[in-house]
TrEMBL record:
Zinc chaperone that directly transfers zinc cofactor to target proteins, thereby activating them. Zinc is transferred from the CXCC motif in the GTPase domain to the zinc binding site in target proteins in a process requiring GTP hydrolysis. The lineage of its organism: Bacteria, Pseudomonadati, Pseudomonadota, Alphaproteobacteria, Acetobacterales. One of its GO terms (molecular function) is hydrolase activity. It comes from the Bacteria. It catalyses: GTP + H2O = GDP + phosphate + H(+). The keyword Hydrolase applies. Keywords: Chaperone, Hydrolase, Nucleotide-binding. Residues 188-209 are annotated as: Disordered. It comes from Teichococcus deserti. Residues 213-306 form the CobW C-terminal domain. Residues 195-209 have a biased composition (Basic and acidic residues). This is GTPase. GO terms for cellular component: cytoplasm. InterPro entries: CobW-likC_sf, CobW-like_C, CobW/HypB/UreG_nucleotide-bd, P-loop_NTPase, Zinc-reg_GTPase_activator.
Amino acid sequence: MTPVPVLLVTGFLGAGKTTVVNHVLAHAEGRRIAAVVNDFGAINIDAELIAGASDGVVSLANGCICCTLEGDLLRTIATLLRREPRPEAIVIETSGVAEPGDIVRNLMDPVIWRAAPLETVLCVVDAAAPLASLEDPLLRAQLRMADVVALSKTDLAAPGTLEGFKAALKARHPTALQVEAPGGAVPLTLVLPEDPTRPPRETPRRRPHADRFETLSWTAEAPLSLPKLQAAIGRLAPRLARAKGFFEPADQPGKVFLFQLAGGRATLAPVDTQRDPGQPRARIVFIAELGPLSPAEIAAAMEGCAVLSPS
């Protein structure tokens, strides 16, 4: 059978990976592209944010595919290759805490390579982040494996800083191709060409893995007070690496809002969807470095936002 090329999308927490994957799927031009989404938490928010038919998205949650879920990833790819009709390409979105070297090594398995060769490793980088963020060991590991570096959120970068940021990236990874990707706009022909020719790459050596982040998934069967939510997030934000989720505001019953915190910036936006009756009214995932923030603190702050119905 014709090999099915794989696009591996990596990048730090909140860099904009899901936005890039959505752009790739929206501009598939008739190609059947399957998406595999890995989120570091029991609730896979990112999988719900992927556009297109839900049966084209496979969710791997509550772990990281560079370590605890690596077997699940290979089984998922094998399952996708048995689908009828078969996908013409596979996009894998890693968790923001994933070290892609281990994933690349697993994808170099000869059996997987023959059927689903890794075509491109795309690293999404938040261009509005401080220049010092490029020194983060995890981001440096993600950049090290990249064929293409996509600069997201260029519209949010401080005036006059973008060229310096790009130069700093180039100095750290001179062989990677840089592209600006406002709104996730990465050309499909760049990352998934119709005539893939990439040879097998050198298998990266296994690196020691140390847990750095922890996650807490918080749910509530009640709508949330928007002012109290904003105040709670303001208190928690300095110790959070990332947060995201869906909730129903108390003053707009039946509406669903998406909350995201990335790079110290919080956003709220209504989503054009109805809550599944079987789902809680609030579902939020918090990711923090180990130590500074306890699950009890997060739970206490969030429970104060819930608006309970009068008994």
